[in-house]
Design a protein that fits this description.
CATH topology: TIM Barrel
Strand content: 15-25%
Radius of gyration: 17 Å
Distance between the termini: 24 Å
Largest sheet: 9 strands, mixed
Number of domains: 1
Structural class: alpha/beta
CATH architecture: Alpha-Beta Barrel
Helix content: 25-40%
């Protein structure tokens, strides 16, 4: 799978799955994103008390599930019994698709629909994530991302081929990413018209791919395309816009 093969359409990836129709980071939202034909599906990876990799943005289940369980302090058997209490489409999906997915279940969906797995690591999971991707022979079709630069450094140390992406990076760290190779970043410009063209051009010149903040309005996406971003995160724009 060549993640960056030429395409006439922008490479859109759905942030935490397609959340307009299902809760974030649910099997339902990932399945919806796959059916819609997104280039990639983004998720957050945490580890349970008993070492199971799962997809969950928050450290606890309080916001989305209504229970004060912390992912890293709870066994998978207990977590899997919980179902989403917040999010869209709760009455549209079977309960089995409205629970926390395991990392493997998420990867299965990405493979089924030929979507790029776009991972954001949370907590001490980097080595486990890299190992699982190696075991599944998915290193070459995955974007490994984190807002924590040490996670990016560790991922590159563990695997020389994984494509790495630093979230909300800086010009200084862009230079390090260029040295690490096979890399990309996002710059923290909510308004794409504020992004310095000279910085974006220099980023590409150094061999580093880039994106900006989520493109949730068509004018913003069109501006990002004009700025030659390599892919676009979105919470709501479908691939056929």
């Amino acid at each position: 799978m060549n993640m960056f093969e030429e395409t006439k359409n922008p490479r859109l990836f759905s942030h935490r799955g397609f959340t307009p129709v299902a809760p974030e980071n649910s099997l339902a939202s990932f399945t919806a994103a796959g059916r819609l034909g997104y280039w990639g599906i983004e998720t957050d990876i945490r580890k349970t008390k008993d070492g199971v990799l799962v997809c969950c943005h928050d450290a606890s289940l309080a916001r989305m599930f209504g229970v004060p369980l912390k992912v890293e302090e709870t066994d998978w058997a207990e977590l899997r019994r919980q179902t989403f209490q917040k999010g869209n489409g709760l009455d549209k999906w079977p309960l089995e698709l409205l629970r926390i997915p395991t990392f493997d279940e998420y990867l299965d969906i990405c493979q089924r629909f030929h979507c790029v797995p776009f991972l954001e690591t949370k907590g001490e999971v980097v080595a486990d994530v890299i190992k699982r991707l190696e075991e599944r022979k998915m290193i070459g079709e995955t974007v490994f991302s984190s807002i924590i630069i040490d996670h990016i450094r560790e991922a590159r140390r563990l695997n020389k081929e994984i494509f790495i992406h630093h979230i909300f990076s800086t010009p200084e760290l862009m230079e390090e990413l260029a040295e690490l190779g096979n890399s990309s970043l996002s710059y923290n410009y909510p308004n794409p018209w504020d992004a310095p063209v000279e910085l974006l051009e220099e980023t590409h010149r150094r061999g580093v791919r880039y994106c900006l903040r989520a493109g949730d309005k068509l004018p913003n996406i069109k501006k990002m395309v004009e700025l030659k971003v390599d892919y676009i995160p979105t919470n709501c724009i479908a691939p056929w816009y």
